[in-house]
Amino acid sequence: MKFRYQARDKQGKLQRGSIEAADSRAAAKAIMSRGLVPVQVEANTASGAAAPKSSGNDWLQVLKDALEPSVELEQLIIFCRQMYSLTNAGIPILRAIDGLADSTHNKRMKKALKDVHSQLERGRTLSAGLSQHKKVFPKLVIAIVHVGENTGQLEESFEQLALYLEKEQDTRKRIKAATRYPSFVLIALVVAMFVLNIFVIPTFADMFSRFNVELPWATRALLGTSSVFVNYWPLMLMAILGGVIGIRYYVSQPSGRLFWDSLKLKVPVIGSILERSMLARFSRSFSVMLGAGVPLTQALSLVAEAVDNAWMEKKIIDIRRSIERGDNLSRAARQSSLFTPLVMQMIVVGEETGRIDTLLKEVAEYYERETDYDLKTLTARIEPAMIAVVAVMVLILALGIFTPMWDMMSAYQGG
């Protein structure tokens, strides 16, 4: 069987070629016998061998993969921390990966680590093995591990990844904690609106219908709204379900996701917090990549995916393209209009002094402090608007229900 390979010679130059061997392990041994260090060994499926036919049970495997629990950020942090400790203690990579595969409780992580272990045995590198499981290991992790392998600083790479992922987890938890209370209040308001219109207001409607009197505008509005809810609630549910599906489909498209992600950043109060949070994520991940030795343009491509926002990803890609055209980082960043003047000044200083990774780390800490302050005051800033919404609802209910009752009581007493 023929295998294609990539290997490095004694001078570190990358060599490519093909070799005949019984299996990938034998191919790796044959490559090493030539004085080369194998980086990647793959079967040459185009060499006349028939590609394996897909079985009729492929959809069962897809369903099984979908039902497997996803790998949470916390599990990635534990993996990076354990790899740092094991590699720093001098434990061989094969033994470390095998031990972590046996100790993890996540099925998807266990399956991925077992496969990485088997690929390491066949002569592939750790980063090449991790890259086969991109649903488990993000591209950022794979790139930094790859740089760590090439520079001989694998344990430092895992330490950097663990610190970065811990900061990311902390930011996510703070955002969730800050938005939990407003979310509960909004859900309670929606539920209360449905209950009032379907169960409470119809009772008053029956009572008012017995009297041939002209009802106030608030009461007529409540009765009309309640009639729509009672008579057309199946259509309303279908419309809501169809709207959710339509919006999800639209957001799944590139143009829809770009519009939605840009819209999120324009939402009053919340938009500025999201923007600062993503800029902190960009600065920290960019700092980690540059500190690990990743080339500038490659680091920008990887960081663009890490921010998880299509609008900001487009801005970062534009920065990368400007640099490829010959601009320096500070000029390209200024043209993007992403950063405040203070941050731009720090980027300029970092570029001039050659310490841009250190200063980007300070930029990340600056944005994280701003985000932390905004999150602490988020509830206090949203509460007045929510109280106003509740007050308007209560006022309409009071005017719509109690005003005609007072009129009827006055007429009864006058009679």
From TrEMBL:
Membrane-related topology note: Multi-pass membrane protein
Coiled-coil regions, chain positions: none
Entry superkingdom: Bacteria
InterPro entries from the UniProt entry: GspF/PilC, T2SS_GspF_dom, T2SS_GspF_sf
Keywords for this protein: Cell inner membrane, Cell membrane, Membrane, Transmembrane, Transmembrane helix
Any single biological process term in GO: protein secretion by the type II secretion system
GO cellular component, one term: plasma membrane
Residues of the Type II secretion system protein GspF domain: 79-202, 282-404
Places the protein is found: Cell inner membrane
Ranges that cross the membrane: 181-205, 232-251, 385-406
Protein family: Belongs to the GSP F family.
Protein's recorded name: MSHA biogenesis protein MshG
The organism of origin for this protein: Idiomarina aquatica
